Structures are given as structure tokens and as C-alpha cells.
Amino acid sequence: MKDKDKMMWSNIKKRSAKDKIVFGAICFFSFLSMIPLFLIIWEVVSKGYKSFNWRLFTQVAPSSMDALIAKMSGEPIPGGILNGITGTLLIVGIAVLFTVPLGLFVGIYLSEHRDNKFARTVSYLTDLLQGMPSIVIGIIAYIWVVKPLGSYSALAGSVALTIMMLPMVVRSTEETLKMLPRSLKEAGLALGASYTDVIFKVMVPSGFGGIFTGILLAVSRVMGETAPLMLTALGASVVNWNIFEPTSAIPLLIWDFYNDPNLVDIIWSASLLLLIVIFLLNWIAKIVARKWKI
Amino acid sequence: MKNRLRMKDRVFKGLLFAAALTILILTAGVVYVLIKNSLDAFQTYGFFGFIFNAEWDPRSDSEEYGAWSFIIGTLFTAFFALLLCIPFSLPVALFNGEYFKGRKISSVVGSVVDLLAGIPSIVYGLWGFYTLRPIVIQLGVNASGFGIFLASVVLAIMIIPYASSLSAEFLSMIPNTVKEGAYSLGATRAETIRHVSLPMASSGIVAAYILALGRALGETMAVTMLIGNTTNVPSSLRDTGNTMASVIANQFGEADGLKLSALIGIGLLLFVITAVINLIAKFIMKKLAAG
Questions:
Q1: Nearest Cα residue to B92 out of B79, B77, B107
Q2: ipTM
Q3: Residue B19, in any domain of the structure
Q4: Number of domains making up chain A
Q5: What is the mean pLDDT of each run of 10 residues along chain B (291 residues)?
Q6: In angstroms, how far is CA B22 from the centroid of its own chain?
Q7: CA-CA distance, A102 to B65, in Å (whole number)?
Q8: Is B188 domain-assigned?
């Protein structure tokens, strides 16, 4: 009898020890998973903060030759990434202009027609577009825009980014509107408001937080996209505001710097700027989502 | 007045429908241009001839293009990355969706891991090149550091947030009463996870990992910077290679004629593979939501 008790106790002890080990291991590996983020941020900040100055925002990327000359005479590399900053603003800005109205309308349509076959097909296709690799999107925009216009252009880059952002904006709009109570819409209609007014003056403002968060996150996601822009916007060594001309962007400049040993010194400040903007957008999205929570 | 109102509504509803229709047209357009522009390569080598040919030779006197080495390179890196990411993403999922469900610390860990998804691919590439590559060389994987191994490690880190956040969501949906049943029978927490939580959330977790795999398959820049960009069928982790995405990124710029068509053909194959992977995951999730 005593022996049996002992055995049971040791068994329980074993099991509880095992339980603690599992818990410890899960905590350990979870914290381990967070380390890469800090390592990456540390690398970018520690290497990039030195040349993170006003020149970065006021001068275009240096040529390889200028950088080499500066390097040989022991001076820091001249120039900044102004052409990349303006290019990113231009390309992403136009993409937002394309995406927001279209994505909003598709999202409204999907939230208003839940059981219709066409809407379900559109919903599936939105998932399909969302999973499409960015390089394939680059090919599409190349064939659709670059080939017919005969030149790489900011517009082609915007089309590529639009295809990337559209599914995200559609999904967030649809999901936000679906969460709104039915009574909200019914109350509007009962008061005699037209369908259009109910959507734009009741539903969309009520879901503003979710919709806006979706747009911000979509922008932050495409901000650092490089592959599709390589096939569409190509890059330029000057500031360009013409949407039909090849245009640079911050990630494209990072790619150029990576491939040119003379320019490698400013790669980190360019990356730092990109990370700051992306994290800032994520942070604002979080605040908006919290503030306008349904 | 009433008629005018109705007219406005009708126009608005028409616009909504037209917007939804553009998604349909967009997708049809994507499939159409990919097929049309790759037809040349598929007709020259035959559908299976193009897929299963490992030769990629752009020299004009012996020009020959096949996708096989890139298909293998893609599957090799993506699956190895998936394998590497499990021991990290599953604990994160359990941490957030089970042990500290709804607590402050889980939202902190969740946000930090989610930020990993916000870092651009090209920055991962830089980090892999400057920080991880020297380590890989020291480990003696190969002389240059570039290759399947380095690319997979970075890919694994990149897909952790995709795998973990969705898995955590499915784990947190398990009703407490079910777990309490197990506790009342004397099961420890670990045993409850092993015998109740994980089996119950298994199909959701599988869907999360399939989606993460889809991400890994299509990832471009980081892989392009780290895999070595050689046209051979990789046979071990030490080998260099190319994925479907990286060969397009590398060679699209100067390509024309048959080569361009072959690259677009690879793009079409990549599109089909990721589409199938994503639809399987979405199908599992829709079934879960309905059941």
C-alpha cells in the first residue's frame, strides 16, 4: 500500500515537473523569437544613425564615382536619398489614390451582399490576389503598363502597388462593415435616408477606424516593396515628379547601394528611414484602431 | 424627389457592382497576360518539357530554358524554412493563445512578433548578408555563406509572425469549459495542451502554416540577396541555387524574346503554386468557421 502511494506521488511529481519544463520551454522559445527583431533594429540603428542627417533629405543619391573619390580622400560619402524619398511619395501616393476608392467600394459591395454567388466569387478572388507573390505582380504591371507605354515609369510602379494594396483594403473595409450592428443601417433607412446616404453618412463613418487602419497598414506593407518596383519604376538618379518617367524609391536605392560597394555606407541610414516610417505607420494604425473601436 | 433619390441609389449600387467586377476583371487579366506572354516558352519546350527541364542556358548558340532547378530551389528553401520556423512560432502561438491569453504580456509579445512582418524584405536581406552570412561561414556550412541554408534561416524568421498570430487565434478560440474538463480529470496544463488544445486547433494551425508556406514560396528580395543565384538543382543545404522568384528578380531586367517568355512562364507557375496553397488554407479556415 505504501509503495503504491509512493509510486503515485513520484508519478505526480514527474508530471508536474514535466508541466513546468514545457511552460519554461514555451516562454524561452517565445522570447527567442523576438530577438531577431531587436537584432535587426539594432544593426540598422547602430550603423545608420551617423549619416542620418539633413543631407539625407536634401540631396540625391551620389554617383558611384563621387562616392569613390570621397572615400579615397577619407571623407564621408556625399549625397542623400532625396530622389528615393520623392519617388516613394509619388509612387505610393498615386497607388493610394487608385486603391482607396476602389477598395472601399468593393469592400462595401462584399459586406452588403453576403450570400450572393457573385460576391462569394469576388471574395475568393480577393484572397487569391492577396496571396499573389509580389514579383508576379511586378511582371503583371510590366506587361500592362511598361510595355504599352514603352518606358519604365512611376505609374507602372503605382499600378503594381495598387494590385498589392487592393485586397488588404477590401478585406479590412468588408470586415469592419460586417461588424457593425444591423440595427444601425435599419435605423438610417427607417428615418427615410437614401441607401447612398446610409452607407456614406452612417456606415462608413461608423467603421472609419477599421477602414482607416486597414489603409495605413496596407501603405506600410507596400512602402518597403522592392521586387515589383524593380520591374516597373526601375529607378532614377534625379528627383522626378513625372509619372511617365522612370522613378526611384527608397527600397530601390537600398538595392542600388547594396550592389555598389562604393555606396554601401548610406545603405543603413536609408534603411533606418524606411523602418522609422513603417513602424510609425503601424503605430498610428494601432492608435486609430484603439480610438475608433467599434 | 422620390424618383431622384431612387436614381441616385441605383447609380450608387451600379458603381458598387462595377467595383466588384473590377476584381474579377483584374484576376482574369492577370491569368490571361501570364498565359499569353509565356506561351512562347511552353510551346517551344512543351508544358512538361519546360517544367521538368533543369537546363537554363541563355547563351545564344545553345539557348535552352527549363524551370526545374528553380522549382526545386523554391520548394527546398520554403519547406526547410517552414520546418525551422515551427519550434519558434508554435511556442509563440501557445504563449499568446493559451498561457497568457488576453493578458497584457501576450499583446506585447504579439505586437513585437507582428513587427517582424513589417520589416521590408530587403532589410532582411541586408541583415542576412552582413550579420548572418559571417556566422554561416564560421559554422562551416560553405565557403561563401550564400545558399539554401542562409536563405531558409532568414525566410523562417520572416514567416514566424504569419504562422504564430493565426495559430494563436485558433488556440484562443477553444472554449475554456473543454480545457476545464481536462483539468478536473487531473491533467496538467501541458497535458491539456497536448491532448486537448492542440488536437482541437489542429486544422486551424495547419491552415496557418500552409499560409506561411505560401508566403515563403513567393518571397523575393531577401532570398535573391542570400541564395547565391546559381542555376543548378540544389541537392543539399550547403548548395547555392535560385528560387522561382529570385531568378525572375535577377534576370528579368535584361531579358527578351524566349528568355523573357520563359521567365514569365516561371511567374505563371509560381502564381499557380501559391494560389493553390492559399486556396487550400482558406478552404480549411472557411470549413472551420462554418463548422
A1: B107
A2: 0.93
A3: no
A4: 1
A5: 75 94 97 96 95 92 93 97 96 94 90 92 96 95 93 97 94 93 93 94 94 95 95 93 96 91 97 94 85 64
A6: 25
A7: 39
A8: yes
Across the interface, of B91, B122, B129, the residue whose CB is closest to A30 is B91
Q: Is residue B141 part of a domain?
A: yes
Three-state DSSP state, A283: helix
CATH number at residue A153: 1.10.3720.10
CB pairs under 8 A between A and B: 230
**Residue A265 per-residue DSSP state:** G
Q: Do the beta carbons of residue A281 and residue A224 sit within 8 Å?
A: no
- Residues in a beta bridge with A247: A234
Domain that holds residue A99: 82-291
Whether pLDDT at A65 is above 90 = no
Q: Which domain holds residue B167?
A: 61-290
Q: Rounded to an integer, what is the distance from CA B245 to the centroid of its chain?
A: 11
Asked whether the whole model's pTM tops 0.80, one would answer yes
- Does some domain include residue B25? no
The answer to whether position A90 is within a domain reads yes
Interface with B, mutate which of A15, A26, A175 (most B CBs under 10 A): A26
Q: Count of domains in chain B?
A: 1
> How many Cα neighbours within 13 Å face the side chain of A195?
16
Cell numbers for A137: 505582380
Residue B118 has its nearest CB partner, among A134, A225, A279, at A279
Instruction: Please report whether residue A88 resides in a domain.
Output: yes
Q: What is the DSSP letter of B144?
A: S
Q: From the list B24, B277, B282, which residue is nearest A122 (CB)? A: B24
From chain B, the residues in CB contact with A163 under 8 A are 26
CATH number for the domain spanning B241: value is 1.10.3720.10
Contact present, B130 and A263 (Cβ < 8 Å): no
For residue B56, give the DSSP letter: E
